[in-house]
């Protein structure tokens, strides 16, 4: 009778043996949160109130001369009576607070444009505008070109040697070709002005 040698348990490849798959895309760059401005304003307001309270505490403790502002404010508030404008003012403040909450929970705006399908590289709108300007400047008949870009639209303003509409078509084609590597090609809008035309 032939003995069967024991089989060793299957080995699970360690982390150093696991092959990674295809590279994943880099996180999409985003701009500042929409509520940044309000957060800064609120922070400054809270800081000012804190400084005022510290100052009044020092006055009440005899460390500083003067009158406590908060005490005077409380005395004035005691004499306040209901007014007709309180209701619309309260509605406006409530709507403002609701709008701030909505702004605070909105996601950060996407800013840059992805290069290729895997989105390993991102270009800022200013870099895209530079590519478009360079492409437009290389078209025959273009003397000078300027460009601006967003995630959706690239606008090109070109000074040309003639009013030939074919120049604008050539600029559009050149710019679209230069941006063909983007994952989502923005719309290209071209405006041409012939030299001497100051309109």
UniProtKB/TrEMBL annotation:
Among InterPro entries, the record links this protein to: DUF6286
The domain of life is: Bacteria
Question: Membrane-crossing residues?
Answer: 38-64, 84-105
Pfam families on file? DUF6286
Q: Which UniProt keywords apply?
A: Membrane, Transmembrane, Transmembrane helix
Which residues does the UniProt record annotate as the domain DUF6286?
95-193
Q: Does the keyword NAD apply?
A: no
Keyword check for Transmembrane: yes
**Region Disordered: what ranges?**
1-30
Q: Spell out the Low complexity composition-biased ranges.
A: 20-30
Q: What is this protein called?
A: DUF6286 domain-containing protein
Q: What is the species listed in this Swiss-Prot or TrEMBL entry?
A: Terrabacter aeriphilus
């Amino acid at each position: 009778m032939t003995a069967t040698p024991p089989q060793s348990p299957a080995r699970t490849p360690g982390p150093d043996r696991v092959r990674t798959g295809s590279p994943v895309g880099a996180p999409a760059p985003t701009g500042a949160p929409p509520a940044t401005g309000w957060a800064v304003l609120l922070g400054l307001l809270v800081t000012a109130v804190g400084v005022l309270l510290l100052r009044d505490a020092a006055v009440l403790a005899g460390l500083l001369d003067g009158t406590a502002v908060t005490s005077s404010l409380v005395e004035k508030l005691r004499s306040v009576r209901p007014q007709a404008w309180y209701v619309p003012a309260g509605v406006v403040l409530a709507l403002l607070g609701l709008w701030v909450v909505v702004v605070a929970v909105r996601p950060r705006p996407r800013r840059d444009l992805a290069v290729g399908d895997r989105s390993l590289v991102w270009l800022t709108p200013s870099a895209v505008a530079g590519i478009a300007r360079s492409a437009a400047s290389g078209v025959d008949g273009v003397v000078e070109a300027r460009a601006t870009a967003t995630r959706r639209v690239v606008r090109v303003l070109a000074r040309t040697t003639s009013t030939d509409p074919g120049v604008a078509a050539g600029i559009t084609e050149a710019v679209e070709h230069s941006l063909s590597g983007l994952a989502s090609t923005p719309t290209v809008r071209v405006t041409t002005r012939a030299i001497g035309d100051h309109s």
